[in-house]
Amino acid sequence: MPNRKGGRRGVLGSAGLYFATAVCALLFLVPFYLIVRNALSTDAEITGENWQWFPTDIQWGNVTELFDDPTVPFGRSLGNSAVVGILHTLGTLLVCSLAGYGLARIPYRHANKIFYAVLVTLMVPAAVTFVPSFVLVSSLGWVSSMQGLIVPGLFSGFTCFLFRQYFLGFPKELEEAARVDGLGYWGAYWRIVVPNSLNFFAAIATITFISGWNAFLWPLVIGQDQEAWTVQVALSSYMTNQTVNFHLIFMATAVSILPLVLVFLFLQRWLVQGVAQTGIKG
């Protein structure tokens, strides 16, 4: 006879798992609900004592006010963040993938020493290199420019490490076949390795774009002119020592996270898959 008690336990266990998952999902969505709710409310409703689950009069005018504010060029800041995020992502993928491929495939007696030096950079706090990086960028005349916002962050030791570990697990047979056809390291990388590693590249691109979009301290220091502000710097300008524009803060937050949500939804299926292919165990 089938074990009814064991079957009931299995059903109860599954039900409990689904319940716990639903509770965690709701808790995860609470901040997003608060952002949307407050973005469509007035300051009085946001800070009022009587809590309302949704504003009685939806303030769609907050969107217009956000982009028409003459003191904060929010639309231009969105464009700057898009340019910085895309170029930063493409540059990081190119530089770090080439470095990782070279460390994994090109025979060189000092390759391991260089790799260990890259790993050492992961142990250096960002605050230690912040001032020297600013002095270098300032001496090049890149303050309040796209070069100053993008170039210093193109190389990432951690991203280079991930690419190296991934390429160590990439089938060598494909590259050997490419060399038989007369391709060198660059040809094998560009024509064989990259087309067969798009899932991993997409995963790294997702993480890199989100990191570049959310960067705040470096853009705050480099973007000294409003024309060079990114969206995070523009968002912080709504909170000053004198006033706090709550409805604009929440509306700006809602608008600024929308690109990240779209990027994540579009590339999420490659995110876990790509990280699983890093080959860290090797």
Describe this structure in words.
This protein is mainly alpha-helical and 282 residues long. It is 71% helix and 0% strand. The protein contains 14 helices and no strands. Helix 3 packs across helix 14. The protein is globular and about 75 Å long. The mean pLDDT is 84. Residues 78-267 form the ABC transmembrane type-1 domain. It is a multi-pass membrane protein. Belongs to the binding-protein-dependent transport system permease family. The chain crosses the membrane at residues 12-35, 82-103, 115-137, 149-167, 246-267.
Care to give the gist of this entry?
The chain is mainly α. It is built from 14 helices and no strands.
Task: Produce the secondary structure layout.
Layout: H1 4-39, H2 43-47, H3 61-68, H4 74-105, H5 111-121, H6 126-139, H7 146-150, H8 157-168, H9 172-180, H10 185-193, H11 198-214, H12 217-222, H13 231-236, H14 246-276
